[in-house]
Amino acid sequence: MSVRRILALAAFCMLPVPAMTGCRQAAAADEGPQPPAGEAWFTAAQVTAAQIQVAPAADHPVDEVVSTSGRVTFDDQKVAHIYSPVTGRVSAMSAALGQRVTRGQALASIVSPDIGQWSSDLGKANADYAAAEHDYKRKSELLAVKAVAQADYEASEDAFRQAKAEQQRAQLKKQLLSGGTSDAVNQSFTLTTPIDGEVIARTVTPGVEVSGQYANGQAVELFTVGELDTVWVLADIYESDLARVKIGAKVSVSALAYPDKTFEGKVDWVSGVLDPVTRTAKVRCTFDNKERFLKPEMYTSVRIVANEAKQALSVPRTAVVRLGDQPVVFAQLGQTADGHVRFERLPVAVDEAIEGSFVPIEHGVSAGAQIVTHGAQAISSAM
Q1: What is the per-residue burial (b if ≥16 Cβ within 10 Å, else e) of 232-254?
Q2: 214 and 102, same structural domain?
């Protein structure tokens, strides 16, 4: 570096602070007037680039909602929980998870000594009934010609009635196997589905021992067959909100698995009693679920429309921006002398619990104010 350049730099560094401040003030003056606090000024080109749009604040129809939580469940008219009526060992599986099945289709085969026992009991009961019936008819004929004692006739009648009752008991026990088909020779029972649907759950594999529903111990659900194209959401409504929830009201839910997706349904049942512990009533909502997004046992956020189409001063939901905990909107105030478009930040109080594309403004904006409906984030970033 030359001696002349070193001397020039030294002289610059020795300038007094007021002189440097004056340079900055002069530079600021060259930039022209600056927007006051709470405002942003945009050129026409900047407004176009940020895709800023405005619309007047006005009355719009808005909905009142009741917000709560809920749980997705099966439509119980379209689901079957299938147990084995006999105790035994699973010998074969006929249905896989996710498989479509039709009513009466085999799900699994179970080898069970109950089949032979129940079949034997029915055969013996039928034989005893036939013998008792023959004896009773014979004694009835003999009694008519005074050829048998009254006591013998009555004993035959009692035996006949007992045999008939035992036969009916055995037949009813056999009917417990109506949930499938049985083979007394092989002592096997074929478990079938009582409805059309999809195999949603299966808890057994070949070789597993299962307990029957009518045996001692706890029977285990072997298959769940059902349809998921329609599901229910059961929500809990507090007593204070119960009068606002009507059958047929629109409902929207969101699930943690799909935070950006909303599912639309309706209320189809409101419980007639309250839970004595939580002081809430169950509300059942029905949803179409063709894409199978909603799955049983999912927890959801529920928003039930309480009153529809109430007129209120409101702005589009896209107009509201949150700065920390404070919601704000931006209003267009006109233009500066040099053609810049002026935007002002307005703190507001809004009812964000209201469902729909418009949110009511409780205070902070007057009717007719030109509110930024699109591009509010760009203005916020410029302040």
Answers
A1: bbbbbbeeebeeebeeebbbbbe
A2: yes
| Spatial contact of 69 and 301, defined as CB atoms under 8 Å apart | yes
Helix (H) or strand (E) holding 18: helix 17-31
Provide the residue type at 286 as one letter: T
Is the whole model's pTM more than 0.85, yes or no?
A: no
Is there a contact between 354 and 64 (Cβ–Cβ < 8 Å)? Answer: yes
How confident is the model over 219-235, as pLDDT tens digits?
889 999 999 999 999 99
Q: How many helices (H) and strands (E) does the chain have?
A: 6, 23
My answer on whether 215 and 172 are in the same domain is: no
**Cα–Cα distance for residue pair 98/100, rounded to 1 Å:** 7
Residues 89, 146, single domain; the answer is no
Domain that includes residue 376, residue range: 60-73+228-382
User: What does residue 347 show for φ and ψ, rounded to 5 degrees?
Assistant: -65, 140
- CA separation for the pair 46, 285 (Å, rounded): 47
Picking from 65, 55, 56, the residue whose alpha carbon sits closest to that of residue 310 is 65
Integer Rg of the chain from CA: 40
The helix, strand and coil proportions of the chain, stated in percent and rounded to the nearest 5, come to 30, 40, 30
| The residue type at 321 | V
Q: Total domain count for the chain?
A: 3
| Buried/exposed 119-140: b ≥16 CB within 10 Å, e otherwise | bebbeebeebbeebbebbeebe
Q: What is the pLDDT of residues 102-131, one digit of tens each?
A: 999 999 999 888 777 777 777 888 888 899
Task: Single out the residue of 292, 96, 79, 286 nearest to residue 196, CA to CA.
Answer: 79
Q: Which residues of 37-70 are buried (b: 16+ CB within 10 A; e: fewer)?
A: eebbbbeeebbeebebebeebeebebbbbbebeb
